[in-house]
Amino acid sequence: MLGVVLAGGESSRMGTDKGLIRLETKTWAQIALDKLAVFQIPVVISVNAKQHAEYQAQFRVEQLLKDNEGLAIRGPLAGLLSVHRRFPKQDLFVLACDMLLMENSMMEKLVAAYKSSQEDVYLFTNHGEPEPLCAIYTARALADTLDRYHSSKLTKHSIKFMLSHLAVSSIPLQPGQEKYFRNFNSPGELSGL
Question: Which parts of the sequence belong to the MobA-like NTP transferase domain (predicted)?
Answer without folding.
Answer: 3-151
